[in-house]
Write a structure and sequence with these properties.
20% strand; alpha+beta; 5 helices; 191 residues; 4-stranded antiparallel sheet; single chain
């Protein structure tokens, strides 16, 4: 088990303790895989939020005292409603974003805890590091769902605009092909 923390400034080559956020994730390391390109990948699973209490060692590697951050998993009407709203937005995002597999939505539908759903959706839509850190530091699952809902709304706006632009471009291409007698058989008319 290790603790994963994010650097405050990703451009710092050799960060010290002050360059790291104090809220991170306890991670269980799994199998190590050698990839065809001679790199190594490690399967890892995030377990829970943690907060660094103090760094007890910095050389040759960091060692820290940390405490788990527990959250309320009680279901309320408010977070039940938010979960439904987040799932509805997430479904639309998955349909428009072809880089997110449809199975992600199916998996999200089967999550029964508000905090877990917020974390899953935030990690799936690929928010930037500052936004991800901000979400990680929100302990209340209802507030976390609210933040993720806002992010989903923004992502959906961008995806809908991209889809609209793509449709307009495709419509223009189709119109141009209808106007020319050779259509998509340009190769037959080349000299």
């Amino acid at each position: 088990t290790v603790i994963a923390l994010t650097q405050r400034d990703p451009d710092v080559i050799d960060p010290d303790a002050d360059d790291l956020y104090t809220v991170g994730t306890e991670v269980a390391l799994g199998r190590m895989l050698r990839m065809p390109d001679s790199t190594t990948s490690v399967l890892a699973q995030g377990r829970r939020r943690i907060e660094i209490v103090e760094f007890t060692q910095t050389e040759p590697y960091y060692r820290a005292k940390a405490r788990p951050i527990f959250e309320d998993t009680q279901r309320t009407r408010e977070n039940e409603s938010l979960m439904r709203a987040v799932l509805a937005l997430f479904e639309k995002v998955v349909k428009l974003n072809h880089s997110i597999p449809e199975e992600a939505y199916v998996y999200a539908m089967n999550v029964d805890e508000a905090g877990w759903l917020a974390d899953l959706v935030a990690s799936t839509i690929g928010v930037d590091v500052p936004a991800a850190q901000e979400i990680l530091e929100v302990i209340d699952p209802t507030l976390r769902l609210q933040k993720v809902s806002v992010l989903l709304g923004k992502e959906l706006d961008v995806l809908e605009l991209e889809d609209q632009i793509h449709s307009q471009v495709q419509s223009g291409v189709d119109k141009d092909q209808r106007e020319y007698p050779w259509g998509d058989k340009w190769e037959d008319f080349k000299c």
